[in-house]
Amino acid sequence: MKARHRRFAWIGAGVAVLGVAVALVLNAFQSNLVFFFTPTQVAQKEAPQGRPFRIGGLVEEGSLKRTPNSVDVTFVVTDTAQRVPVVYSGLLPDLFKEGKGVVAQGSLGSDGKFRATEVLAKHDENYMPPEAAHAIDQAQKGQGVSLSTLKESP
Amino acid sequence: MNVYQFSSPATFYPFAGWLAPWFAWSAALLAIAGLWIGFAVAPTDFQQGEAYRIIFIHVPTAWMSMFIYLVMGFWSVLALAFNTRLSAMMAQSLVPTGALMTFIALWTGALWGRPTWGTYWAWDARMTSELILLFLYFGVMALRNAIDDPRRADRACAVLTIVGAVNIPIIYFSVQWWNTLHQGASVSLTAAPRMASIMLIGMLVMAFAAWFYTIAVSLWRVQAIILERERSASWISALPGLAGALR
User: Fold this and answer.
1) Please, what's the b/e burial string for B117-149 (b: 16 or more CB within 10 A of its CB; e: otherwise)?
2) B99 CB within 8 Å of a chain A CB
3) Residue of chain A nearest B122, judged by CA positions
4) Could you tell me the pTM of the whole model?
5) Fewer CB near the terminus (10 Å): N or C of chain A?
6) Does residue A150 have a pLDDT over 60?
7) Considering Cα of B216, then B218, then B221, then B225, what sign does the dihedral take?
8) To 10 degrees, the CA torsion angle through B195, B198, B203, B204?
9) More reliable by pLDDT, B139 or B46
10) A61 pLDDT tier (thresholds 50, 70, 90)
């Protein structure tokens, strides 16, 4: 074995040991590394009790309610399995929309309502022009329509 | 022709000087084309409006910030294993550009995050690990400046670079391993891109511009490093235009 081969082996072994160590550390700190908890985790009491945390999911369609003449809003965060009602007083980000992702920081009250102190919009990874998004919406609706017409036609 | 002859600074110096302008001009032309596609041709986004155009800068620089570090790691392994001077110089030449790319990625991300997420900064896994990458670049630069003997500095920086390389997969996979505020990858090698093709083309052209820019400046920088570190070599005092300038 030449000296440079031995050095290669040492470097390789060193990186492998380091990689395993980092993997173990990250695994141990798993719960501290997540940015938010899902409504299912909240329902299963995996979220921290008695201290503030972040909750993330989709804003349920039709759940957004604004109190007139104030900035108080209520909405429901869902991961399609569990739902958590959220109470918030403040300005919502531009991308906040029903059916879109959201991350709210706050704490869970004893009444099961999440009192948010900060609401952030979570953007998804899809980028397309408005016409394309419109076309996809139309196509999905069209599919629904054609399916229903198929059912109704004798 | 033996490719190993280019591991000698005396052979590589003129080759780098010949190569660099080609990459610099390609980078300039690609950047003009990419910015034109990105800001004039590409349509607006259905959710984010005009704010999404930050991706034409943000994504290429973020890719480069990670890729430059991997290339530094490659040169560092060669420098440690073969004990070659030029490998360490190549690694050294990439550090400032890597730091610049990381800074631009973080900065443009903050400017984009404010209108879309509602905050400049959040301590989620993707952003925190990218910030650690910026500190790693600074750390390699500081370590080099802290050690007077260049050969010892080479070895120390190589070890630090290789150790820090574990951060790169963490940055890349952070959006899959943990819940993060940062969205998942729109473009990857294993899945169809999740964006309109003209937006993707603009982004890829800008990515190539960032690549060629990095190659050009690192070649020029490695020339300067060779001049500085090999200044007592006879071939350098024989260079036209340099006789007398370096004593």
Assistant:
1) bbbeebebbbbbbbeebbebbebbbeebeeeee
2) no
3) A35
4) 0.84
5) C
6) no
7) negative
8) 100
9) B139
10) confident
